[in-house]
Amino acid sequence: METISTMGTTNVFEIRGVIEGYYGKPWTFRQRCDLLDFLQAHGMNSYFYAAKYDAYHRERWAELYQPEDCRELGRLAEHALLQRIDFWYCIAPGLTLCYSDPGDMDRHMAKTEQVYRLGVRHVGLFLDDIPPQLQHTRDTQRYASLAEAHIDFIARYAALLKEKLPEPVQLCVCPWQYCGTGEEAYITALGRSLPPEIKLLWTGPQVCSKTLETEQTERFLKATGHRPLYWDNYPVNDAGMYREMHLGPLLGRDATLGGYSDGYLSNGMEYYECTKIVLYTVADYLCDPAHYNPEVSLRAALESELKDAGASLLLLVDNTRHSCLQEANSRILHSVLFEMRKALVKGCREEAADLLAAYVLRLDTLEGDIALGRIPEKLLGELEPWLRRHRGMHRVLHLTVQYLRNPSPSLSRWIRDELDAMKAMTVDYGDCDMELAVGEILRNVAFAHV
User: Fold this and answer.
1) pLDDT digit string, tens, across residues 62-95
2) What per-residue string of b and e applies to 181-204 under the rule 16 or more CB within 10 Å gives b?
3) What is the rounded distance in angstroms from the CA atom of residue 221 to the CA atom of residue 175?
4) Which position among 189, 312, 342, 442 has the lowest Cβ density within 10 Å, counted as fewest Cβ atoms?
5) What is the pTM for the complete model shown?
6) Which fold is adopted by the domain 15-292?
7) What is the pLDDT of residues 326-368, one digit of tens each?
8) 356 and 404 Cβ atoms separated by less than 8 Å
9) Do residues 174 and 128 make contact, with C-beta atoms less than 8 angstroms apart?
C-alpha cells in the first residue's frame, strides 16, 4: 500500500469530536443528548459511542440490544442526525471473539445491522485492551499472529458492510496496539494491509500522551500508510487516575496536527459536567489550533458555564491541573506562596499574612458563590470529594493567616491536625508546596512572640 500524500492538507481536523470510551459509569441518555447539542454549538461533528461499561458494547457484544435499550439508542442516533453530528457506534468483541469462526462474524454483523436500522452509518471495531495472544485453538491453527487474525477479520467485515448494507458505512478500527511510535511490527502490518478509508485510532506515543506532535504523526503515516485518528486520553481519569480530577485546559497539541491526521477525539470522564468544562478548551483548539490560548480558553469556559462565579471556581480548577499533560497543580497558589516567602525572608510577617489573606478571601468568595447557588448542584456533586479536600486546604490557609499574625501552640496544633486530615483524603488536590510552606511557617515563626 502506498503512503498517503500529505500535499494540500490544512490544519483543519476532518473529524472533531468526543469519544465516550472510558472505564466507569456511562453517561446518561440526557447527558449524551446535551453533549450532542454542545458539539453542534461548538463546531464539532462527531460522537463515538464506546462506553466500556455498556455490556452490549464489550462483554455481551454478541447479543442484540433489548427493545427498550434499542429504542433509547435509536433516539440518540436521531438526535445526532438532527444536530448534524456523526454518530459512531463502536463494538468491542476482542475479549472473546474467535476470528476464524463464521458464527462470530455472523453475530458481529447482526449487531451492526441492528444499529444500522437505527440510522447509524458510522461504525467502529474496537480491538483494544485485549490479550496480546490468540485465545482460540482454531485461530492459532489458522493465523501466524494476532496481526494476521485482525487483518483478516477486518477485511471480511469491511467487505460485508459493502455487500449487505444498502447505504455506505464508514468504518474505523481501534487496534490492539494503539500507542507508541507507529513503527512497531503489529501496527505497521495492520496499517499496510488495510485500505486508507478504514480509519485507525491512535492515542499517540503513550496511552495518555503528554504531547501530540506533527513529527510523531508523520512517522505513523509513513510506517502504516494511514493518517491517525487521534483518540486523546484527556480529560479521562479512569484506571490509576481515579483520584485525580482533570479540569485543566488542553495542552501540548501541535497547531499543525490537523493537516496530518484524520481527526481528533477527546475521551471524557464519567463526570460529565466536569468533562464539559474541559471540552470548551478542546473545541477552541480544534476550531483554531494556531491561535488557541489554553488559559484564555479555560477562563472563557468557566464564564460560559458559571457566569460571574467562574472566576471563583478557577481557584478550585487551579488545584486540579495535575494530569498526563502537566505535573504541577496550583499555579495561582504557587505565586502567592512565592511572594509570601519573599516577605518572610525580609522579616515582614504582616505583609506575608496580608498576601495569604487576599488568597483566602478569594476562597471565601467561592464558598459564598456555592452557598448562593451560583454553581450548579450537578457540578458540585461530581466535585464533592475534591471539594472536601479544597475546604480542608481553605481551613489550613485561614488558620495560617491567623498564626502569622498571632502565633500560638494551640493554633499550631490545629493547623497540623487539619493538614493530617487533608493527607488522609485519597483524592489528588493541590500539591506539597502548600504543606511545605505552612510547615516552614510553623517551624520558623514558632511562638517567637508569645
Assistant:
1) 999 999 999 999 999 999 999 999 999 999 999 9
2) ebeeebbbbbbebbebebbbbbbb
3) 15
4) 342
5) 0.94
6) TIM Barrel (3.20.20)
7) 988 899 999 999 999 999 999 999 999 999 999 999 999 999 9
8) yes
9) yes
